[in-house]
Design goal:
The protein has 81 residues and is an alpha+beta fold. The protein has two helices and three strands, in the order βαβαβ. It has a three-stranded antiparallel β-sheet with strand order 2-1-3, covered by helices on one side. The termini are close together.
């Protein structure tokens, strides 16, 4: 099983990397883009035998303790078999 974790800045948190990408896209002629937020994706291969509930709880603990800075970041978890 794989867990795909998408981590992104919370609404209201300044995203200078997103602003730079937005500016660069505008400079390249992509004017239809209104805003850009940059995040990160982490793909975890989990051991066999875990139920979906167990896997989600484990990955949530990983996010809360290490993978995400929950003061300024949110995350989504997707499990793939």
């Amino acid at each position: 099983m794989k867990a795909i974790v998408n981590i992104y800045l919370k609404e209201g948190v300044l995203d200078p990397q997103g602003k730079a990408v937005h500016h660069a896209l505008g400079s390249l002629g992509f004017r239809e883009v209104e805003d850009v937020r940059v995040g990160k994706q982490i793909i975890l291969k989990l051991r066999d035998g875990l139920s979906d509930q167990e896997a989600k709880e484990e990955v949530e603990q990983m996010c809360e303790k290490l993978l995400a800075n929950t003061v300024i970041e949110d995350y989504d978890i997707e499990l793939v078999r």
